Every structure is written in structure tokens, then in C-alpha cells.
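Section: protein folds

Sequence with per-residue C-alpha cells
===
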Amino acid sequence: MLRAISSASARQTVSRLTQRSKVASAVNRSLIGLSQHKRLYASGPDQFMSTANANYIEEMYEAWQKDPSSVHVSWNAYFKNMGNLNIPSSQAFQAPPTLTGGAQGAENIPIDNNFASAANIDQNVLLHLKVQLLCRAYQVRGHLKAHIDPLQISYGDDKSKEVPRELTLNFYGFTERDLDREITLGPGILPRFARDGKTKMSLREIISSMEKLYCTSYGVEYTHIPSKSKCEWLRERIEIPSPYQYSIDEKRQILDRLTWATSFESFLSTKFPNEKRFGLEGLEAVVPGIKTLVDRCVEMGVEDVVLGMAHRGRLNVLSNVVRKPNESIFSEFKGTTTQDGVDGPGDVKYHLGMNYKRPTTSGKYVNLSLVANPSHLESQDPVVLGRTRSLLALRNNLDEQTKSIGVLLHGDAAFAGQGVVYETMGFQNLPEYSTGGTIHVITNNQIGFTTDPRHARSTPYPSDLAKAFDAPIFHVNANDVEAVTFIFNLAAEWRQTFHTDAVIDIVGWRKHGHNETDQPSFTQPMMYQKIAKQKSVFDVYAEKLMVEGSFTKADIEKHKQWVWGLFEESFERAKGYVPNPREWLTAPWENLKSPKEMATEILPHEPTKVDLDTLKKVGLAVSSWPEGFEVHRNLRRILTNRAKSIESGQGIDWSTAEAMAFGTLALEGYNVRVSGEDVERGTFSQRHAVLHDQKSERIFVPLKNLSENQGDFTISNSSLSEYGVMGFEYGYSLTDPDNLVMWEAQFGDFANTAQVVIDQFIAGGEQKWKQRSGIVLSLPHGYDGQGPEHSSGRLERYLQLANEDPRFFPSKDGLQRQHQDCNFQVVYPTTPANLFHILRRQQHRQFRKPLALFFSKQLLRHPLARSRMEEFSDGEFQWIIDDVEVGKSLAPKEEIKRVVLLTGQVYTALFKRREALGDRHTAFIKIEQPHPFPFAQLRDAIDSYPNLEDIVWCQEEPLNMGSWAYVSQRFPTVLKETQKYKNSQVRYCGRDPSGTVAAGNKPAHITEEEGFLNDVFGIKN
């Protein structure tokens, strides 16, 4: 039964409908009306009632009775109100109170009491709700009002920006008269205050408290975190009357650390006024912040801290956090080296790293490692995380992830602008890449070289990226060193509690330009007028301590003089300082000889061969699966054929050889880690290292189940990242030489995206920073007519980075030291056995060198790429393979007229053409290792052919790519050492120069291949 509804002006009443036919008619008209007036019916009652549409109210009511979802959701409240409350229709609809201050489309309407009268809500409840919303606004938006900028040009102190409306009284309909109204504390309103005994506060007191908690010299962003427990954990530590209060002793420690940090910059400025040092002036509070973070982490169980940072402030951190001897730093400024000039670093001082074990305030020791880095901003981020992960593995702490921690210091412009930051943060929860959380410290000097923040990012803060990873973000004023200390402590506790990332945005300034010789006022005149008037953070803190009576001016000056005197003593000792190259190494490398230490030793035979029983054990293990495990039917056939090849000892393919290399190393106690996009199955469905049950989520990794005492075998598909993941694996390889670490590109040219890691870390890291690594880059390469993408792994780029001198044939000693002296190895094997031996050779040496390992997609299954079991049990890696020595259809060497030198899969095309031609007088020499170059082996091989008329180099890549530019410089050097071919030349056969890697279609590819094959065999096109 309907109650009569009074309406104003022309609105009709909804009459009581009693006859069935009338009801049916009304519903029908309602549906027709809804179709014809869809726009109005889809709007709310407030908009609808303002139009001349009262004729449709009756129909809509009937429609609502049948199906409430057939009309706009606001009509639901309207019809419910008019049915349950005998009120005018003009008041039946009221917008609910919202944080934005009104109904949609009425943002300027403050929350008022109409809602309460309409819905019969108690005034006190409404008041509490409004105060609760105000408190929530401070939790969400209070950081925008915080005094975090010492220059007062950005953020909360920027006068050009309005205070967020949610933080004003007017937004909630409050007036000055409301400020003294008492509010009951409780849910949503300072519950911690209530637990401390206070049950009521005035609105004025509540606002004052929220200002102190969220709008002082630090601001916190955490409400984006979806976990209620994590948010409550932070509120427990933030929403308390005094979040931090330091004792006199604690203040003395903070002052001492700040004195060292500030005096260090002043001392360098005095002694080396014209040198670049990328000083920390304006952000000196970072040093006591990091030191208190390290102390707190160690108290909570951390044993290793891995630091990564760019150049700004690096020397200060090296001196005052890592404890690198100051005499060492001063000697680098003076340009001194080691006595023989060999073992010192090969990079500028503000790129160097160091490892050091030092005590903490708790009496425990911590291993501190500052990762060396180039000027490629943020490139060290994944390196730090990889190193941290490997330390966790070394300490058997991968499950808890509490003993090792990564700490990254970023510039504000770099954090917001460099994509590798996102790639690295994306590792946070990935099973084989997580490190238990990283603490990110943004040293925010509000400028990027000469670029203003407004031109450097599209977000208010540089830290906004971190919200994607649910990290709490702490903004803090760099001039308030006690607040900085509190925030760094809080971040440390967060990480050790929740094992996820935390971000500290410490906002300061930069006293000088990009470096000390730069003039910043060219581009930022107003900013540097403000900076010129700034007191140092030391002066700010010293004045605070004197005003409060904690210390006298004489106390502070005396301590400053004492610190300066110690710097003077170190400066004098620097004159005779000889650096220890071991300071760049982590402990597990201590027993491994350096390449220099290998100078006077003859390398023992590299034991890469393995007995048949062990080979068979591993081979059969990777060909089988547990009972009751449902393997895919096609994979079952693949694994069965693999087992047959192991049993027969014939036809062992590429992937089986690789698995046997990994497995035998694991049985010997080495740890093997393989990483990259799709490595578990293999991009080309070749590896199948992880088996998946077809009827469940179970997986089985054969190489993890060889023996109870084996080394660890880890293989993991990575995120879709090259730069970040390759950097991570490089960092992982730095920790322990007993780890064989391999990163595999999905396609070889994908390594392009990680070129910074290759150029700056892998190719040059040992010479620049004495950072040794045995990382393997596995790079698919080879032309198959599928277009220019994914054909080439860019072999030429790696060879261009090779450091071997092509102009001189090595001496006897030089030949023995080719591998010790090279910066990395480049290998392109063509047989499974050679792949097996090269992987094992990485570990069976007294030193480590990176390896760029190219492999052919075609050779994964090609019948020419098969090996016998005896080649694994009795063989070793072959630098070159002379096919006359292994072939049966060629003429004796005395009758060979042409030798074709080559590398990689082009061998299969040459072999096929030679067979088709029935040519018995052309021999192929495959160069399996282009770098270090096989000078002696190639000389001897060519000399073994006494009657050559033609020496050819053949490659499938264009002339300006591939190996030609590299080998063409070395062939004359080799030929001069031969008996008969001193004046001979090597003829090039390959594709013509090209701006693109390969032809765009199969017919063009075949035409080009036919051309250079004909050229090799002297057939005119």
C-alpha cells in the first residue's frame, strides 16, 4: 500500500494502485518511458525532480517494485525513504556524506546537518564521522602540508600551492566555534591517545595533534598499502604523542656522526679545492641516517649490508659508513698508485667500492659492501640486489631473508627517470629474485644536473613510483637530523618485520653545481640565492642543542677540532699509503688467486672431463621423471630419446650436453644458477629443465635431485627484463666464485637492452674495480631467414670490447696467459661436447672470467651437432676444430687446396654445399673461441696444410657485422708466423654491408646465402 507523497508545484502524486490491470498497464508504460527517457531515468532523483518529468514517477515506482536494479541506484534510497518515512518527496533523496565534501557534481557543498535530519541520525554520530574523515585526510594527505623542504620552494612550504581542501575546516562545515567542542577518541580518531588514558580531546587539540604527527619535518605516505595490518603497524609508531625522544647520549652520537660527515666535506674542500668530489653538502644528514639504519638492522639480525649509490656523497659514505681508510681516499686524490702500478683501481675515486667488516653500536660486527658503479645512473641497483640474494644463499637464509640487506641510495631525478629502477623494484616478490626487501634512500637535492623537477618527472614526488610496490614512503627534511634518524630507524624496522621495500625521500639541497667546478646559477639563479643563505645541517643542529642546553658551544667546537686533527693525521699518512687490492673482494674470493698472482705459474690441466659412470648418472636423471608424475606426451618422447642417446653413447644433443655440464658441476659441490626469460623450458623448447605434471600443479627439477650432497641447482624464468635481470645475475656472481651463474637471452639481440651492464660491468669491471666475475651470458645467434629481429646476438659488439692486441703474436708466456689477461671470453661452439667443456671450464680454474657464450638455434637439433660420450669423458674444450681431422670423405691434407675459416652455424650451410659439390679438396677450420684468439692453434692448423692455394673467411653476417672486423686484424699476424703463408691474404666471403642485421624475408635470405656460398667455392653467380 502506498502512502501519499506531497509534492511542490506541478509534481503529481503517486496514487494507490489497486486493480491488477492498472498495475500491468503502469508497468508497461514504465518500461516504455524508461526506454524513451533513458538519460533521465539513469540519473538520480535530484536531477530528475528538477525537470518536468513527474508523469513518470508512478511508472518508475512500479518498475522499482518489480526490479530495483532497473532504475538509477539513487531511486532506491528515494523510494525507500518515501515508503518508510512520511516526508516530502523534496527531502526523500539526500546525498551521503563523502570525503570530497558532497554528492557527485556538488563538490563545493560542505557536509551539513540535512543528512542527519533526513535519515534521523544523531548529531554526535555525525560529528564523530566528520572528525574521523578529517583525521583520515591527515593520514592520506598530511604529507602535502609537511615542512620537508629546507629551501621552502617545493612541497608543503611552497607558498604557491594551496593547502589540500580536505585539511581545512570549511571542507567539513566546521567553524571557529567548533574548535573547542569535545570529541570522544576511538575508532579512526587517535586511538593510541585513548589507550594512553585520554578519552576526549577538543577539535582544536585533535587538529594540533594531527599536524604534529603528519605535518612536521617529516611526512608519511602509507594509505596506498592494501594491508590493514601493515598500515596499523605504522600508525602504532607514528600516531603517538612523541614518536621519538633522544637521550643526551643518543644526541651525542648523532652529533658525532654529523661532525664527521660535515668535516669530511670541509677537509676535502680545503685540501683539494679544484678537484671534483661530488660532495654531500646539503644532505650530510644522510650519513648519520645510514649509520643508525645499519645499527638497527644489525640489532635485528642482519650480518651483511650491501650498499649501492651514485657518485654524489660516495666518498663520504666510503669514509664514514664503510670505514674505508681516509689515507686511502686522500692518496687517490693525490694520484698515488700501488708500487708496481698494476693492482690499483682503474676508475675515478667517486666510482669505487669497497668491502669492510666493522663493529656496530650493539657490539656485533657487520660486513659492509659498497658496490662500485659507473656514471650510468641506477645501473648498480640490480647488482646490489643480486649480490644480496647470493649472500642470503651463502648464509642459508633464503627462507627468512633476515641476515643480508640491500640499501640503495638514489638521486631524485634518477629514481624518477631511470627505467631500471622499476625493473629492479619488480624483483621484490619473485621467488628466485627476492631479497627480503630493499631500503631505498632518495637523496633529493631537488635538481637533476641542471634540470628542474617539473621537467624531470610527471609526479609530485620522485618516490611516487614506489606506490606500485606497496612500499611506505617517508619524506623527511634533511635539516632535521633527529627526524632523519627516526625515519631511518623506522624504515629498518619495517624491512626486518615485513621483508618488503621501504622508501626514504630525504629532501635537502646541493651546495655546489653538479660538481664543485660547475656554476649552478647559470640555470637556477633563484634556487641558489636561497642556498647561499642556508645554514648547514650541522649548524642547525648545533644551535638546537645549545638552545635546549644539551651541549655548550665549547663542547661542540672541541669535538670538531678533534675530528679535524684526525683527518690531518690521515692526510699525512696518505703520502706513503699502498692500497690492498683485497679490499675490493668479498671473503669467499680470498683463496682464489688473482690473474696477476697467476703470472709466474703454469696453469695445471683443466679437468673438465668426467668419468662415464657419472655422466651416465646425470644423463639418465635428466631423462626421467618420478613415478606417478604425468609428463606431457610429446615431452615423454623427447626425454625417452635423450635416455637412448645416453645409453648408447651416441648422438648426444646440445641440451643433454648442457644438462650434463650443470649436473656434474652440482655433484662436485658447485652451485649452478640459470636465469632469464623462459629458461626453464628454453625459448626453443629445447631444455625442459623443469617438468610440469599434466594433471596437477606439481613440478619436478631433475638436476635438483641428483644427490643429497650436491650443490644447489637453481633455474628460474625471470621477469620480462634484460637490464635489471642481467645486472642482478652479475651481482650474484660477485659474491662467491663457487657459483656458476648463467643469464640467457630469450634471443641474442635482447641483450641490447642490457648493454650498460655488458659495457660497464662485465667487460670492464675487473680492470676498473678489481671486481671478478665468472658470469656466463648465453646468447642465441644464427641466421635462418626469419627477418632481422632475433637473427643476430650481435657477436661483433662483444668482439669489439675484447682487450687483446691483434698486432702482435703472443710470446710463449703470453700464450700461457691469454685467459688470465683477457677481460672476458667470447665463444661460439658448434658441438655439444665443446659446450659441455666450456661450461665446466668456467669453474675448473684458479681464476674467473666472464663468458659470452653464443649458441645456434639451428644446432640445437641439427644432426651435425651431435657428440659421442667419449668426447665428454676423454676430451677437453677445443679452441678450433679442423674438420679434416674428424671427417672421412675429404682428401689427405697434402691434397687440400682451400681452407675456409669460420665460426658458428654457417658451418652447416658450407658442409651441405661441399657435399652437394662433391668437393674433397676444401677443408673447414671452425674457430670455436674467437676471444682470446687462438693464435698458436690457428697457425699450427694452417701450417698442417702444405699446398693451400686459397684461404677464405666465411660468415653469414654482413661485412660490417659478425666477426670479420675482429678476425681480419689477427689473420695477418697469424699468417706471418706460418712457414709457407707469410705473404698470403685471407679472402672475405659473406653478406655485403648492411644497415640492418638480416634480410626481411626467406627468399632474400636464401639468395644472399647462395651468393656467398658460391663465392667460397669459386662458383660464378
About this structure: Confidence is low (pLDDT under 50) at residues 1-55, 84-91, 93-120, 338-342. Residues 123 and 337 are 79 Å apart (CA to CA). The radius of gyration is 37 Å. The longest helix spans residues 248-271.
